[in-house]
Amino acid sequence: MRLFIVSTVGTRVFEARKKLNLTQGELADIAGVSQQLIGKIESGNVTKTGSLEEIAKALDVNYSWLKHGSTDAKSSPLSSDINSFILTADKAIDEAIVTMMAINGQKGSDPMMLDIEVLKRAFKISFRGKLTGDYVTAAFNVDSIKRAK
């Protein structure tokens, strides 16, 4: 795997975007941010952004590389910095809670009723999907959770 060393976040965004032959507008659409934000990041006018993880995903590069420039551009989420890993887990637990509430509602139970087993299974599915991108398998597993309860 090739190691990229580029000095700033903006330069890394620019280089990764150009490698994919994307315009700022196209990258913004894929990442779910404004074109103006991409422009500001690339020009060095934004040093902190809560959207950097989405931009890294849109560029298909490692979040840690995009933020710090210190790891392989395409390394696994498991080898990236701990904050990115925690953010992924946090998003997965939020999705698991929503899934558990939907399953409770479909069963006619109180949506806010805590079912630890369903929550644990839903979290594993969501987290695995976020780390691997395998949401098709996750969707089939959600159906199996519904049938099991």
General description of the model:
With 149 residues, this protein is mainly alpha-helical. The protein has two domains: 64 residues, 434 Repressor (Amino-terminal Domain); 67 residues, no CATH class. Helix content is 66%, strand content 0%. The protein has eight helices and no strands. Helix 6 crosses helix 7. The N terminus is likely disordered.
How would you briefly describe this protein structure?
The chain has helices spanning 9-19, 24-31, 35-43, 52-59, 63-68, 82-107, 116-132, 135-148. The chain has 149 residues and is an all-alpha fold.
Residues in helix, %: 55-70%
H and E order: HHHHHHHH
Average predicted confidence as pLDDT: 77
Terminal-residue CA separation: 45 Å
Strand content: under 5%
Largest sheet: none
Number of domains: 2
Structural descriptors:
disordered N terminus; mainly alpha; 149 residues; 434 Repressor (Amino-terminal Domain); elongated
Give the SSE layout:
Layout: H1 9-19, H2 24-31, H3 35-43, H4 52-59, H5 63-68, H6 82-107, H7 116-132, H8 135-148
